[in-house]
């Protein structure tokens, strides 16, 4: 298992904006992560005392970043930062997530990759029930390593 400190070293999202607490498993074909911070009253995405289901898209995008960081690290490098440019086929099945008592879990898999872009599918569950799923695309910044 890979913990939060190792995740923080892999991605640009720092402090409370790093949404994942641990990597349960990963390989080149995908990643499985877990988070508990959705219940935190100080969560940086909260507004009006709630953390809304739409924020699960950010959890999905950060799953991509963690996977990219792990893949780059395995090849002896570091991942390029990315900018989220599109969400497609997103289904969010809950209005809010701050009231969910258990951990959030996510699986994500790369669907398409080019030198300067990536597209992933993500699925987020709570207590074995899918609460969000979709596809996210990022444009990678900087030069190709």
TrEMBL record:
Pfam families: ApeP-like. GO terms for molecular function: transferase activity. Keywords: Transferase. This is Phosphotransferase. The keyword Transferase applies.
């Amino acid at each position: 298992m890979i913990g939060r400190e190792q995740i923080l070293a892999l991605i640009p999202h720092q402090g409370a904006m790093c949404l994942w607490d641990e990597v349960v498993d990963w390989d080149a074909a995908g990643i499985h992560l877990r988070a508990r911070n959705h219940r935190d009253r100080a969560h940086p995405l909260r507004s009006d005392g709630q953390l809304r289901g739409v924020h699960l898209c950010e959890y999905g995008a950060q799953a991509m970043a963690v996977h990219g960081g792990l893949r780059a690290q395995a090849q002896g490098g570091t991942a390029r930062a990315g900018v989220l440019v599109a969400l497609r086929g997103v289904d969010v099945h809950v209005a809010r997530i701050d009231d969910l008592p258990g951990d959030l879990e996510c699986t994500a898999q790369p669907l398409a990759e080019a030198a300067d872009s990536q597209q992933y599918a993500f699925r987020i569950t709570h207590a074995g029930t899918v609460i969000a799923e979709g596809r996210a695309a990022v444009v990678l910044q900087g030069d190709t390593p």
